[in-house]
């Protein structure tokens, strides 16, 4: 091991002192953005609702007012599901990138959402599960199996899971699982009709279902937020982490568990949404540096803000109809994804 | 061989993205000799070689093959006279030695002229010359690093050119394999009169094998000539920025460089600026 | 030359000749067997189905005789379907092998890197949003494939194109384009959406002579062009520098070959949608059959045709009462194969 010269240590120390207030301030700015995004999500849509009425709908609800009805019954649950799903995907992406030490890890790209989707469809179609709290477990199982498959396939062998292999295994799994899901819903026109809307990823869910999903996502989120210190050590490489006394297997398992909780319930709630979990951690790291203890909370704030913004964009560009949020994120998310890929040197791929 | 092909550069400037790497370099490759190009990392030696092989267009100046600007010749005309082995060529997965070496015959085949007895002989001779005939049916990816490098050289030989440029053919090889490859190149040079120009990392091996040594720094030639004549402690200091002790190689009588570091030095050999 | 050397050269010559002969013989045998299998699969898809017809009836129907029902079944339904399957398979197989060889990456087939997705997106937009059909839609699919290919190539370009960067950029572009197809499906009515599914999975259902025409024209035009351009494939495989040193005009050859491959993908996608993984698996299977690395273009094309024809029979008749799109079957077969390939590539410490 190389002993760092004292000058460097001083540097780090100084950065930490001045860095912390800056990071806290940044997080507060992020929260402000999140609040604005929530407000926009409540106010805008097929018809805009003036801000005053939005506030009234939340504080002093009058069921006879049509605008208030829309805000309270459609947009509020939608905004809440955006908050939950956004935070879930942002955190899941960050944890996955940390655990796999792979810049391309993303629940959508790696087929985890597709696995959850397939099992949810099986749960609804074959097992006759109709309540969210019933089929969400199918989502967990599907997410877990897909994660194991994709990671297992790409990690075999000497060089381990390189970004390309992981991405390909993910894209392949997504295609195959999507085909099976498609085959299952094909025979049933009604199911297909629902499925084609669900498979693109949409936030419009009833308050009831959002409420049922919330506890799962919250548990997963707490697990993810607590893992920052371990991810920091793991970032130095598996061998180094072991040398520093970390139980690598345990950390991996914990990470995987929270990812499965987050992705499974997010997908069961809103369908597969790609690129959010991939792009957000990279954006956040540009602000916070590589310390996962900061990356994680930032991701939990930035991801829902972006997801809600994408949802609002989808509602506004195609008024009076709308573009599902999954499509907006796939289209907009591909841009930073490609920029990321371009930035790497070939040797790193 | 009387009408040997000649290769030279004239005030050649080579650049990547507008950044000059080789600056106004004029250089004549001695025909029929073994030339080694040495210099620190990023001194432009590989770039010079790529420029001379027509893989990189000059920003200004020219590379002359038999007195004509190489970039005005067709790719095929160049390939018939000049062979080049890049630093890391790619062997397709599972390709056999025979097949890889056969691809060296590409410039000699045309739309209607496919595989002939002449191609067969050229490939066989290249396999024998590089001592890989026994490996002919083996897949290239199963060979050792030294064997693989010999196969690549065989491919370049099958091309039947009497100018052969090699970009660091000994990198990634261990010492015995480095010697093996350089011995092979010397054989070729002596037996066939092939003009060899190779970029080398190891100064001692370069001195031992080269008839003509070219030392570069910052895109310019600092010194060139027979190793024993050009290599002095001052030249090494100028090219590599490193003090050294110059001995005589007990086997070949060529100069041998012993580097001087901070922990192993006496005052005489510290570089001028720090001593 | 000394006698010893002459002798060694003679021995080496014999071994070179032997190696080449064995290889050529194997290629001929494999191709011949594949041709027979493809022919059998083709005849099989014309003969078998919910109602089996005899070869005699088929010949009769082709000559204009026989009952009207048989004529309709054979000439209007099964023949165009089988022909589309055959040609689509040939195109995808060839295009896949070209891409994989050119980009020196077994994973870089047009269905993985988003070329098919480009064709699909263009076709679905043309049909759902503009109500186009027939040749106009085929042309839009072709345009979509070309556009996607250009986009991916430009986006992946950074002092040259690395195979891996191109694959990753392609996956990103494919995700975005697939979402466009999904979106068009949510915009259409349920019935149209069922039909538009072809653009997500790839299907031979309801293919008519209208689909065969443009496809056949594309094959007749593109196959000879590809064969002509493929001469430089052997040196391009050795890397740009080595290829150039061997007298290949690298950029020109590559652009010509990629152009052919993209056009083949576009034409096939226009006819049957992005039949998943056919382009991807054909090349590797062909190489394994031949036991060598060289670009096995003809065998790859034949394997593509065989896969599509057999998968379509499975999709139509082997899975209960529903007729599934052929692309679903090929994806379900092809995806595990890709995953297996990834683990294998890993074990060798290469390939991705």
TrEMBL record, chain A:
Signal peptide: none annotated. Its main location: membrane. The chain crosses the membrane at residues 23-44, 79-96, 108-128, 134-154, 166-186, 213-232, 253-280, 292-313, 325-344. InterPro entries: ABC_BtuC-like, ABC_transptr_permease_BtuC. GO terms for biological process: siderophore-iron import into cell. It is found in: Cell membrane. It is a multi-pass membrane protein. Keywords: Cell membrane, Membrane, Transmembrane, Transmembrane helix, Transport. Coiled coil: none annotated. The keyword Transmembrane applies. GO terms for cellular component: plasma membrane. Pfam families: FecCD. GO terms for molecular function: transmembrane transporter activity. Belongs to the binding-protein-dependent transport system permease family. FecCD subfamily. This is Iron chelate uptake ABC transporter family permease subunit. It comes from Streptomyces sedi.
UniProtKB/TrEMBL annotation, chain B:
SUPFAM superfamilies: P-loop containing nucleoside triphosphate hydrolases. Residues 7-243 form the ABC transporter domain. One of its GO terms (biological process) is iron ion transport. Keywords: ATP-binding, Cell membrane, Ion transport, Iron, Iron transport, Membrane, Nucleotide-binding, Transport. InterPro entries: AAA+_ATPase (IPR003593), ABC_transporter-like_ATP-bd (IPR003439), ABC_transporter-like_CS (IPR017871), P-loop_NTPase (IPR027417), Siderophore_ABC-ATPase (IPR051535). One of its GO terms (molecular function) is ATP hydrolysis activity. This is ABC transporter ATP-binding protein. It comes from Streptomyces sedi.
From TrEMBL, chain C:
It is found in: Cell membrane. Keywords: Cell membrane, Membrane, Transmembrane, Transmembrane helix, Transport. Pfam families: FecCD. It is a multi-pass membrane protein. Its main location: membrane. GO terms for cellular component: plasma membrane. The chain crosses the membrane at residues 28-48, 82-103, 112-130, 136-154, 166-185, 215-234, 255-282, 324-342. The keyword Aminoacyl-tRNA synthetase does not apply. InterPro entries: ABC_BtuC-like, ABC_transptr_permease_BtuC. GO terms for biological process: siderophore-iron import into cell. One of its GO terms (molecular function) is transmembrane transporter activity. Belongs to the binding-protein-dependent transport system permease family. FecCD subfamily. This is Iron chelate uptake ABC transporter family permease subunit. It comes from Streptomyces sedi.
